[in-house]
């Protein structure tokens, strides 16, 4: 292998009854994002610039759960989080608890580039956004009618939802029906279709980067922080690979999933796909999550242990695909 490669995801775990037109919209958005990344890479953009570019596009489109279209807290508000990592330099930036920043991934990039820190959250992150002059909007901008409806259903069912799920009797995904609800830290969650977004890129210099952005879980507690902004859990990049995860954040955090892919490549000498398969099998609770990854040699891989993951990838030799189901 060799050359550049990129992968993008729009969340792991998908409503098996997702209407065909929504599936089509998702595939079109993933394709648009891949094409955006491809043309940037053809113009010699660096991996870190491309992951930011692609995730900004996903945040701006309301289809997935990041930026506009973010999942809502139990209070009906939006608290967004994101992280980015430049593997070639081992630099990273992360943000949580954003309520007005239009593109959280770009604020994470600014934390990396323009602050002495790696991670800013809530009021301090919002203040930093003002200092940096990034675009801010009212919280309402992020809230879509669809998500308001989802929150209502989630509250009625007293459940923490990953987007797109409507907790009805007999509903089944990942092999778990309503009679035996999945639990997350003791709370019921129904079958899941999270739609956090992420992008991983290796550029033609072999530099890897990763970026992840989300609104978190529907009906989450205000103040809840998931895996997406946590370097090593939801996002990681180093000299060897770049990884972005999606799924039940609490499980991803427990498994330090993203870093683990790099670790088994480094310490066990596994290939990228072998490392992804190993980590999904041995570090992740069943039915919880998925991830996308690239290696410094231009390989691209993904894996998930739930029913589906919105994803796409492209490589310099002209290969390109998008998919949803297993
Ligand atoms: N991992 C995200 C979180 O737990 C959810 C997702 O991937 O959709 O916040």
Automatic annotation (TrEMBL):
Molecular function via GO: asparaginase activity; beta-aspartyl-peptidase activity
Site residues by UniProt (Cleavage): 195-196
Record bears the keyword GTP-binding: no
Swiss-Prot/TrEMBL catalytic activity: Cleavage of a beta-linked Asp residue from the N-terminus of a polypeptide
Domain of life assignment: Eukaryota
Family matches, as PANTHER family: ISOASPARTYL PEPTIDASE_L-ASPARAGINASE 2-RELATED, L-ASPARAGINASE
Subunit details: Heterotetramer of two alpha and two beta chains arranged as a dimer of alpha/beta heterodimers.
Protein name listed in UniProt: beta-aspartyl-peptidase
Organism for this UniProt entry: Vigna radiata var. radiata (Mung bean)
Name of encoding gene: LOC106761766
């Amino acid at each position: 292998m060799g050359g550049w490669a990129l992968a993008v995801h729009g969340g792991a775990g998908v409503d098996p009854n997702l209407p065909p037109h929504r599936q089509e919209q998702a595939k079109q958005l993933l394709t648009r994002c891949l094409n955006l990344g491809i043309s940037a890479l053809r113009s010699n953009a660096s991996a870190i610039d491309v992951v930011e570019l692609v995730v900004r596009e996903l945040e701006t489109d309301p289809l997935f759960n990041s930026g506009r279209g973010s999942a809502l807290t139990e209070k009906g508000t939006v608290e967004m989080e994101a992280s980015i990592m430049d593997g070639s330099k081992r630099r990273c930036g992360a943000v949580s608890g954003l309520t007005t920043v239009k593109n959280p991934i770009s604020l994470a990039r600014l934390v990396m580039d323009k602050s002495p820190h790696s991670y800013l959250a809530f009021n301090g992150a919002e203040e930093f956004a003002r200092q940096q002059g990034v675009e801010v909007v009212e919280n309402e901008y992020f809230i879509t009618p669809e998500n308001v409806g989802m929150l209502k259903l989630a509250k009625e069912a007293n459940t923490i939802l990953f987007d797109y799920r409507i907790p009805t009797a007999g509903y089944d995904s990942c092999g778990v029906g309503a009679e035996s609800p999945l639990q997350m830290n003791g709370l019921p969650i129904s079958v899941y279709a999270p739609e956090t977004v992420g992008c991983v890129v290796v550029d033609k210099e072999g530099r890897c980067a990763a970026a992840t952005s989300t609104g978190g879980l529907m009906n989450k507690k205000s103040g809840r922080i998931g895996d997406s902004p946590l370097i090593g859990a939801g996002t990681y990049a180093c000299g060897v690979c770049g990884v972005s995860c999606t799924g039940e954040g609490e499980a991803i955090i427990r498994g330090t999933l993203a870093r683990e892919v790099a670790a088994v490549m480094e310490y066990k000498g596994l290939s990228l796909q072998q490392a992804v398969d190993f980590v999904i099998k041995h570090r992740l609770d069943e039915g919880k999550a998925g991830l996308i990854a690239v290696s410094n040699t231009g390989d691209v891989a993904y894996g998930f242990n739930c029913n589906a993951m919105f994803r796409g990838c492209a490589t310099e030799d002209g290969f390109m695909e998008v998919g949803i189901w297993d």
